[in-house]
Amino acid sequence: MATETYLPAHPGIRPATAQDIPVLLDIINGAYRNDAGWTTESHLVEGARALAPDLEKLIPPLRDPSTGTFLVYHPTTSTDPLGCINAEILPDNEGYFGMFAVNQSQQGQGIGRKLMEASFEVMRIKGCKKCVINVLTDRKDIQAWYGRCGFIMTGKTVPFPSDAGASKLKPGVQPVLVYMEREL
């Protein structure tokens, strides 16, 4: 599938493939578990953010395309994808995104916003009216960034998932995620 035609308004965005998984693991784990960069959670969470089976479930044939699309930003100027986002379709005309990460050396160049906008388009195409996300309670900086992207706090919270794979909260970290939402 040609990158330029998947979402015409979003050049460089395409669905992830199984061949992308090694690079995407580096991007995701680097962004969330490296000691550098503003997206790191290494002071709050230990263990890998994602493992290969986590990503394999997000890519056909293991994923039904009606449940969402795992997108990558892979411009023609790069040999590898530079970022990713998983656009998930939920009941009640809601979308959700996760596995949102940009290569640390490429952060601050608008790639994250491009990926987020492309995920919103996927959600709108599938009939979603709003997007919801979960953010660790202790990540006020990330909550503020999402606020600048149009998300608002809902007042809802959920516990940190007990089935978070290799990810475990460090002692003293609140095991709570806040819900934020944005109209599409």
UniProtKB/TrEMBL annotation:
Q: Name one GO molecular function term.
A: acyltransferase activity, transferring groups other than amino-acyl groups
Q: Which PROSITE patterns match?
A: GNAT
| Domain N-acetyltransferase span(s) in chain numbering | 11-184
- CDD domains linked to this entry: NAT_SF (cd04301)
Classify the source by domain of life.
Eukaryota
Name listed for the protein in its UniProt record: N-acetyltransferase domain-containing protein
What organism does the record attribute this protein to? Spizellomyces punctatus (strain DAOM BR117)
